[in-house]
Amino acid sequence: MRQQRRPHEGANMTETPVESAEGPPDPASPTRRTALRIIGGAIAAASIGVAGYGSISSAAAGQDLRSSMTIIAPAAAGGGWDTVAREMQQAQKANGLINNVQVVNMPGAGGTIALGNVSMLEGRAGNLLVGGTGLLAATIQYGSAATLDDVTPLAVLFEEYDVIVVPADSPYQTLEELVTAWEEDPKSIPWTGGGSFDQLVVTDLALAAGIDPVDTTYISSDGGGEAIQALLNGTAGAATGGYSDNIDQIESGRLRALALVAEEPVEGIDIPTAREQGYDITLTNWRMLAAPSGISAEETEDLEDLIAETIETPEWRDAIERYHWSERVIVGDELTQFLDDEHARIEVLYEEMGQ
Q1: Would you give the DSSP letter of residue 142?
Q2: Distance CA 303, CA 324 (A)
Q3: Is 348 helix (H, G, I), strand (E, B) or coil?
Q4: For residue 153, how many C-alpha atoms fall within 13 Å in the half-sphere facing its CB?
Q5: Would you say 118 and 127 are in contact if contact means Cβ atoms under 8 Å apart?
Q6: Which of 109, 132, 245, 272 could disulfide-pair with 287, CB 3.0 to 4.6 Å?
Q7: In what order do the strands lie in the sheet with 191-193?
């Protein structure tokens, strides 16, 4: 199995920045990143006064958690975080788990705008924030003032696996063939993906293959659909993207799947893992829920119970199957360790990209 190189200073993956599905364009320079941090903080502070903040703060401390709940999606309607929020809302409403549950969309800066707002709702347990790998990555990428340490993580719910794909007419039949050509001339194979998470996967594969990310071209696309089009029109030669985003194109024969990015083979997915093929990359796009900080131990337990009840409902089970989510529930001390490990892992990848 190939060994991952140690991170080095100054690496920078060549990139064509385009706004991603769950965040703004990747910063192009340290100065730009600093500016984004300042602007992001100002927007977060200013957004406290908008209607969205009034909605999420309406569930006051001490209120019966089964009476009213707000689920905050830190992105616009239609994205992955929004889907989680609305499927959870539907499951809770259909089964009478909460009397009144609403979803509030609060997009911006890869989810850190919403995170900053929720971090200011100390003690207001009637609010749940949807997050995941992308949100954790955004706190590192943009150096946001608010981090996951400023909220109360409750549970990871599931994870989505990326697939590595090429067009059906690509000369590469296996991951090994693709990586071999990539190693010989890294700039000869432009990569694409639907957002910042997919870029992290490409970076991880480059490191596992002994390729400097600085030598690789990554074309960031605005969502999975645009990434697929970049493959099909020849703009990109290979891509990473969510399994659910690519499965239709794979089954239709327009794309060829070379590897699944998962720790082990997944039942029902007939794609070999990258790890099986000698490339130890396992980063997944997991989704989680968090509450504001400062809530009591009793409130934390009540919210954990609510989540446990929600994910057992028929509606949620149907969503798991419909969206090809791979259930992985992580709570308690295991969750704390998991988030710490993921933070360290993603931080290294951004260092490799020079961000």
Answers
A1: T
A2: 25
A3: helix
A4: 25
A5: yes
A6: 132
A7: 14-16, 217-220, 191-193, 238-242, 162-167, 255-261
Task: Give the residue ranges of DSSP H helices in the chain.
Answer: 30-47, 51-56, 80-94, 112-118, 133-141, 175-184, 196-209, 224-232, 243-252, 297-310, 314-322, 332-352
Q: How far apart are CA 311 and CA 317, in angstroms?
A: 7
How confident is residue 53, by pLDDT bands cut at 50, 70 and 90? Answer: low
The DSSP secondary-structure symbol of 95 reads: T
pLDDT (tens digit per residue) in 325-339: 999 999 999 999 999
283 three-class SS: coil
One-letter amino acid for residue 226 of the chain = E
Whats the size of the chain, residue-wise? 355
CB atoms within 10 A of CB 305: 12
| Both structure tokens of 332 | 């308690």
155 forms bridges with which residues in the sheet? 289
What is the distance between the alpha carbons of residues 311 and 301, in angstroms, rounded to a whole number? 16
- Does the pLDDT value for residue 59 go beyond 70? no
| Fold (CATH) for 14-24+162-261 | D-Maltodextrin-Binding Protein; domain 2 (3.40.190)
CA-CA distances (angstroms) from residue 29 to 36, 145, 226, 351, 354? Answer: 10, 19, 25, 13, 9
Q: Where are the domains of the chain?
A: 14-24+162-261, 48-159+286-352
Q: What is the pLDDT of residue 78?
A: 84
- The CA distance from 129 to 70, in Å, is 9
Q: Look at domain 48-159+286-352 and name its CATH class.
A: alpha beta
CA torsion, points 55, 60, 61, 62, in degrees to nearest 10?
-130
